[in-house]
Amino acid sequence: DSAGALVQLTEISEISEVRIVHLNKIIALMSKIRDIENQLRCINTSDCSEISDVDLQSISKINRIKQLKNTIDTDTSSLSQINTYIEQVQDYMKQCGVAVETCPKCGESIIFDIDKLN
Question: What is the dihedral of CA 33, 37, 42, 48, to 10 degrees?
Fold first, then answer.
């Protein structure tokens, strides 16, 4: 085959550079295709099954749960920071002679001046 191709080439007066570039691209693409085909032969898909709508729904639900967990974690962190700030304000108020207590009946916070208690 190679000898026959060389005989045919001797009959050609010139080869266009554009054709050479195109042939080189074709050769490179053919090589890539052979590599991909070899890789596909090595992949074992015997244990695989089709992805069903139930699988997709389950994945969607898991993603939603992850989002909700992240939201809860963020809110918990914010609440912790708020509680820390409230404690700091209450400590500051106590240092100023003011106390904050929670009403046992209604649950409201009551602020009173410690110095005025008898």
Answer: 110
Pairwise CA distance, residues 110 & 96, whole Å: 15
β partners of residue 59: none
pLDDT tens profile 76-100? 999 999 999 988 887 877 777 666 7
pTM of the model: 0.41
Rounded CA separation 73/82 (Å): 14
Pick the closest to residue 19 from 6, 31, 9 (CA basis): 9
Q: Is the dihedral of CA 107, 108, 111, 117 positive or negative?
A: negative
